[in-house]
């Protein structure tokens, strides 16, 4: 039976970790090891994890917050060292059924591919899609699009099919992908690290990803990073703005093509209009300067 290394990065996850662990330890595919990489949580995350006396848990405690990309790399390296055939990168702000791992393995076997991702739904709106796989679009600077985002699930994505991209919120990956492509770029810290990784996989062309609707995952979007603020939660938080802005620019910079350079310029021109017109930003000088600073930070990463 295939051995799966389940990798999750925790940081003050006490409000979500219990449901996640219950989902993991209910899996019908039992040959897995759970690698919990904790980025110096200051809450009860580790206390809750320690209540689960299961020999399949390995906790790696970082003394400071090294970020999601570095944390995933730590887990991937540990899983490869333990001879795992597959790595499941998964967020711990998720809940899922007992067939998640077995269904993802089935898709990989039946389609002779290297990666598989499920239908991802909003936990707070379980009939609304968060991601049904994604694709890289040249017209978007090769930033991916989450297919089905915010669409009510009426069966429109109920076919197993090839996709280019999936968030590492939940993706099962053969060990050979990491051997051929490498690990996550730790400069991203959080957000867009998976965009960079799957873009490299897609450009390489050797490894394919398939999406399956036959198992679902429910994502508590923003529960850990608190990407939205306000009452109701309608404004981008400063943390989210900083890292998404700088990381999108860094991703474009890394492509180092005439087209990507054009898109960086386009992004710079578009940014003030988004700030003024979308209604998702706190319209104050502090936020505007944060956007400018984050843009420059991305150029010099």
Detailed description of the structure:
The structure is a single chain. The protein has 301 residues and is of the alpha/beta class. It is built from 9 helices and 14 strands.
Q: Which geometry do the CA atoms define? A: globular
Q: What characterizes the major β-sheet?
A: 10 strands, mixed
Helix content: 25-40%
DSSP strand (E) fraction?
A: 15-25%
Low-confidence regions: 228-232
Number of helices: 9
What is the alpha-carbon Rg in Å? 19 Å
Mean pLDDT across all amino acids: 94
Give the H and E element order: EHEHEHEEHEEEEEEHHEEEHHH
Question: How far from one another are the termini?
Answer: 42 Å
Q: Can you lay out the helices and strands and say which pair or pack?
A:
Elements: E1 4-10, H1 17-24, E2 32-39, H2 45-50, E3 57-62, H3 68-81, E4 86-90, E5 94-96, H4 100-111, E6 115-122, E7 129-131, E8 134-136, E9 144-146, E10 161-163, E11 170-174, H5 175-181, H6 193-204, E12 209-219, E13 228-229, E14 235-236, H7 238-255, H8 258-277, H9 285-299
Parallel strand pairs: 1-2, 1-4, 2-3, 6-12
Antiparallel strand pairs: 4-11, 5-12, 6-7, 6-11, 8-9, 10-12, 13-14
Helix pairs in contact: 7-8, 7-9
